[in-house]
Write a structure and sequence with these properties.
This protein is an alpha+beta fold. Helices cover 34% and strands 21% of the residues. It is built from 14 helices and 13 strands. Strands 1-9-8-2-7-6 form a six-stranded mixed beta sheet. Helix 12 (285-306) runs antiparallel to helix 13. It starts with 10 loop residues before the first strand and ends in a 5-residue tail after the last helix.
């Protein structure tokens, strides 16, 4: 358990009104109270938890290679302008005294699983959006804003007492506002936004605070004179639709505090993949083919563990100049064996310019999952267990296009 630093009581921020809200009209509908819970600097905090000597110091979690990026950083490191996804080399330039540790995903997953299990003692209406954050619908638990605030505080305190980690929590009538709220006073924040205060709460905030508004969208909005959510609220449907299409409709609603999206407690995974960024640009096709083969084996292992088959294989290639291309092939019959996925991935590689342009990153993913139940759902190549020899990786395929599937089948001896 970490010691609580001086003045580290959760930062509470109730917007505009501290008086109990007026009773809601009885219209037969339950008033929504949604929490967004976000672990504070999760990876870095776990490292400091397990190694107390790291606590309170600028800490970077990430690899040490020349192209490594910061996976997470402690709050002391953020004071130097460091943030996640920043190149590690740049982070070390900004803060030479920062300590760097390699990620331990197994440990993070272990604690994440334990924390979400604990939260289910409060409610099963949990939407896990990442390893360290989630939405929770506590409408059935809390009949008032004050009750919702106390539930959130109990969760926050319980997580710290049980796991030695802090989190920030936003409480609001809908998901996107609760997410904004949880981020306003980090770390250790508790922020409550009442229904009657939603528009006043949103109005002065930068449009970049809206989840999903990235740098590109924010720049477009700023160029149109839209800098705050109040500015956004003054725009009509036509203007936002012309700029963003369907996303414009969502922005129109967000500016008015509207977000009816439900808590999604179960997701059906649509794809699975793995990728690798090389320490140096790779111009050797043999290395690329071996890397894809290794990745295909990892993907096949996942399919085996989940008892799934896939009908679509996709590869991703990022060239040295950061151009990104993807190639995809779908088949009527599913596949799961590593050799099947490798054969398709290698044929897709031949449809790129990897044979004449240096490559920075490659990846393989599968999608369009199925669970074979009939004789018609046989593996694509109908391989037997003895057909396990690896494909020849020493030379490229012809440049004229993907290899016909019949040519990728192993010879039968």
């Amino acid at each position: 358990m970490t010691n609580t630093p001086a003045g580290s009581l959760p930062r509470t921020f109730r917007t505009f009104s501290f008086a109990p809200p007026a009773p809601a009209p009885d219209n037969g509908a339950m008033e929504r109270r949604i929490l967004h819970l976000d672990m504070d600097a999760f990876f870095a905090s776990v490292e400091a938890l397990d190694q107390p000597s790291l606590a309170g110091k600028p800490l970077l979690v990430g690899g040490s290679g020349p192209r490594s990026v910061v996976a997470a950083c402690s709050y002391p490191a953020r004071k130097f302008g460091i943030h996640s996804a920043m190149p590690m080399r740049r982070a070390q330039e900004l803060c030479p005294q920062a300590l760097c540790v390699r990620p331990r995903m197994g440990r993070y997953v272990e604690l994440s699983t334990a924390i979400f299990t604990y939260l289910r003692e409060f409610t099963d209406q949990i939407e896990e959006t990442s390893i360290d954050e989630a939405y929770l619908d506590i409408s059935a638990l809390a009949s008032s804003d004050e009750a919702a605030f106390e539930v959130a505080r109990a969760m926050q305190t319980g997580i710290h007492e049980r796991f030695g980690l802090w989190c920030s929590v936003g409480i609001a009538p809908c998901k996107f506002i609760s997410k904004i709220a949880s981020d306003l006073r980090k770390p250790q924040a508790l922020v409550l936004v009442r229904q009657a205060e939603v528009l006043d709460f949103l109005a002065p905030l930068d449009v970049g605070r809206i989840p999903g508004v990235g740098h590109v969208s924010q720049r477009k909005l700023n160029q149109a004179g839209v800098k705050t959510i109040a500015d956004l609220r003054r725009q009509n449907h036509e203007m936002l639709d012309s700029m963003f299409g369907k996303w414009g409709e969502r922005l129109y609603d967000y500016a008015r505090g509207l977000d009816p999206s439900p808590i999604v407690t179960e997701y059906e995974r649509k794809s699975f993949g793995t990728e690798k960024t090389f320490d140096r640009d790779v111009a050797d096709l043999g290395i690329l083919r071996q890397t894809l083969t290794d990745q295909a084996e990892k993907v096949a292992q996942y399919l085996e563990e989940e008892n799934l088959y896939a009908k679509t294989v996709t590869i991703k290639v990022r060239y040295a100049n950061f151009d990104l291309v993807s190639r995809q092939e779908s088949y009527p019959r599913p596949m799961r064996a590593a050799r099947e996925i490798t054969s398709v991935a290698l044929s897709l590689l031949d449809r790129t310019e990897a044979h004449r342009r240096p490559v920075r990153l490659v990846g393989v993913s599968v999608s369009n999952f199925s669970e074979p139940e009939t004789d018609s759902d046989l593996p694509l190549f109908n391989l037997s267990p003895s057909d396990s020899n690896p494909p020849d990786l020493s030379s490229p395929r012809p440049e004229s296009g993907p290899t016909p599937l019949s040519e990728t089948q192993p010879s039968q001896e």
